[in-house]
Amino acid sequence: MKEIAAAVVVAALAVLALNGVNIMPYILVSIIGLMLVTRFELFGKITNGAKYSSEKGTLSDISFDVVGGQDDAKEDLMEALSLLKSSRNTKLGIKPLGGILLQGPPGTGKTLMARAAANYTDSIFLAASGSEFVEMYAGVGAKRVRDLFSKARRLARRHRKESAMVFIDEMDVVGAKRGKVESHMEYDQTLNQLLVELDGIEDTSDVKLFVLGATNRADLLDEALLRPGRFDRIVDIGLPDLDGRLAILKIHCQGKPLAPDVDLTDIAHQTYGFSGAHLANLANEAAIQAMRRGDDNIMHNDFLESIDKVQLGGIREGLLSSAEKQRVAIHESGHALISELFFPGSVSTVTVVPRSKTLGFIRQKEDVAPVLQTESYLKKQLCVLLAGGAAEELVLGEGSTGAANDYQRATEISKNIIVHGLSRLGIINMDHIDNREFNMVSSEIIKESRDKVAGVLASHRDALDGAAAILAEQERISGEDFRNLMHQG
């Protein structure tokens, strides 16, 4: 239709021009009209883009049984869901919660938990991302929020469900504190509409709406969003502990042909700090390793190799010269030696195989990370970090740029010691301390640890040299083999 209209306009302008009429005013009017039509058409496409993810309501077949490693979070969420399902006329006068916010690092299973929650409450499941609500045109986001909640009710009726679960991921995008983007009120309008919809959820409706939000940064959310009556319950979904990692590994290894030598408990020990997504990727990478070998079974070593790949990236062949490999071997042997002396049994693997994110590394086992870190614990960690550069200076006479990341992390630990009142400064107010004095005390802490490490390495020089020589030749030493080398030295 637009093409036909344009042709008619051009023909009319041509006739007027032939008759000696000044057609410039008509051209300007035509251009303005075309711009308005295009703008309204684009706006309509954007607002009607509500056939985005919210249109795809689904029936979730995921139960809480397939969510591993989050027992406390599951219990907390299931209790909150029970309150959402209950009526207002309970004997104790408990009112249903307004909404539930899932908070935790990326990859910990927030979306999986939301799908399990929909299954648990027998609700239709609708998912949307916070970024889908924000556009350059004012009012678009607010309309999409209204559409999301209205479609939730409509789809629940269509599927003959009594409730609908609305899941909004990236809540920190749509629910960020108002006034942060002063030149663009679209963000604030979208949040205001979301607050209105949350306030409008009524138990008396024929369809109950359950609202779940997910974010990595709850501290960025607007206070009005977290006030009682809206998101009443915050469920923390953190990184899994040892038992949690083992449970997740068992889930993702179901149906995979594991060789008899595979010890998932050992793998769980060696994956401290891994999220559920990391562990799922680990199981998949181990299967890929077996496929590359042409083996029908996944070996324990496939998992070990995959841990390195998931954590540090792929191998970079031929990157180091023989002299550089020797230096890296000395560096990593220094880290491993001090780690074993200060935290016995902590070393899992030492390697000088260069990868995308490192030239070499030691992987430590950490069964239970202390929640309350003492001064002695922090200084031991400081010594482990400084040991690589100290070993280079002891054996080769000078350090290198390879210790840069170690030193950066060491300064962070020294700052942590000072901030928590564990230095000679005692308890301090960081807002009133002189930067020069702060840096001086930080340097003192690092120098004290560095001198201590240098003395320990010098007294264990034979073990250091022996481990470095074997590491440079074999490129990888297991924790058990490294401990045997220490005892021989």
Descriptive account of the structure:
- This protein is of the alpha/beta class and 489 residues long.
- The protein has 4 domains: 48 residues; 184 residues, Rossmann fold; 71 residues, Helicase, Ruva Protein, domain 3, CATH 1.10.8.60; 167 residues, Up-down Bundle (Methane Monooxygenase Hydroxylase, Chain G, domain 1), CATH 1.20.58.
- 54% of the residues lie in helices and 9% in strands.
- The protein has 18 helices and 9 strands.
- It has a 6-stranded mixed sheet with strand order 1-3-4-5-2-6, sandwiched between helices. The chain has a 3-stranded antiparallel sheet with strand order 8-7-9.
Write the layout of secondary structure elements.
Blueprint: H1 2-18, H2 24-47, E1 58-59, H3 71-85, E2 100-103, H4 110-120, E3 124-129, H5 140-158, E4 163-169, H6 171-174, H7 186-199, E5 208-215, H8 223-226, E6 233-236, H9 242-252, H10 264-269, H11 276-293, H12 300-312, H13 322-342, E7 347-351, E8 361-364, H14 375-396, H15 404-419, H16 435-459, H17 461-474, E9 476-478, H18 479-488
Parallel strand pairs: 2-5, 2-6, 3-4, 4-5
Antiparallel strand pairs: 1-3, 7-8, 7-9
Helix pairs in contact: 5-7, 9-11, 11-12, 13-14, 13-17, 14-15, 14-16, 15-16, 17-18
